[in-house]
Amino acid sequence: MSGNVTPSPTFVKRVINRVIREVHLLKHAPRLQVSSHHFKLVTLGTVYGGWTCIDVPELRKAQVVSCGLGEDGSFDVEFARRYDAQVLVVDPTPRAIRHFNDIAARFGQAATTSYSPTGQQTATSYELTGVSPVNLKLYPKALWNESKRLRFYAPTNQAHVSHSITNFQNDYRTDTAHIEVDAVTIEVLMAENRLNSVQLMKLDIEGAEIEVLQDMMDKGVMPPQLLIEYDELNFPSPRSKERIESCHALLLTRGYRLVNIHKPSNFLYTTLK
Question: What is the pTM of this model?
Fold first, then answer.
């Protein structure tokens, strides 16, 4: 004999909470339109740390700035190998610096282990044959819209590596755990590293990308390809929605088009025709 089964209060609560979260995400989701294009796209790196860019000849031996290493440098390493490029890795986080040093100690060596499915790679997982200090260089400062000493706020989950200038993970507060780091503007970064023409810039800088992009546009620093992670998408709110939509609109007014979204929060903009 069959009969109706009454769901448990715990199950009902779980369903209600999921619906509330989905409604919240939808309400505060930025409206960003992807443009049609004819470009050949290539995705490099792991599932966690990978990025998509436009495969063009100009990337060969190009100067590239990659902000945000963490403990997964798979995109930076694979990009450097594929294009024999000069990739400047920008990250002042102590764990990221240690990870880069582990990578640098194996320059020229083949991978001996596979990539991890997490965001924490071992140096032995990187294929570093043909990669030298010319291809990968660390700049252990933060990129910001001012050159100054500033607070770098720790993530809410201590297992995570990435710190944030804006502290969006903690509702933009200024009283949570932090370290202090040196930050520089884009023109200082380029001058100190003798960068003449940056063909591609990756900004995975935990909410600081919006202020940095505004500063770059104001100063006419406009790489043909911008790889941007809008980290605030992971913490939806009216404020994050407004910030992201404003940044998107700014890029459109400066001649950029959004041509690809890789994973929920990684966006590829270009001025290429």
Answer: 0.83
Pairing of strands 41-44, 51-54: antiparallel
182 phi/psi in degrees, rounded to 5: -85, 135
Residue whose C-alpha is closest to residue 88's, from 64, 72, 114: 64
Q: Domain 39-143+195-270 belongs to what architecture?
A: 3-Layer(aba) Sandwich (3.40)
User: For the segment 156-198, what is each residue's pLDDT rounded down to a tens digit?
Assistant: 655 555 666 666 666 566 666 767 889 999 999 999 999 999 9
Question: What string of DSSP letters covers 183-200?
Answer: EE-HHHHHHHTT---EEE
* Domain extent listing, the chain: 39-143+195-270
Which letter does DSSP use for residue 139 in this model? E
Tell which residue, 141, 122, 222, 215, has the closest CA to residue 181: 141
